[in-house]
Amino acid sequence: SYLLDFLVIIGHMDLAEAYRNTRLRVGFWYA
Question: Is the pLDDT of residue 27 over 70?
Fold first, then answer.
């Protein structure tokens, strides 16, 4: 259970990072 929660948290962090990186790329192309 703890391991699963840990993986879920890491997964959310990866999604947030990917989302932020995508926003940075889009901002760069449209800047």
Answer: yes
- Measuring CA to CA, how many Å separate 5 from each of 1, 14, 15, 17? 6, 14, 15, 18
pTM recorded for the entire structure: 0.48
Domain extents in the chain: 1-31
Count CA within 13 A, CB hemisphere, residue 17. Answer: 6
Q: 16 vs 1, 2, 12, CA distance in Å?
A: 23, 21, 6
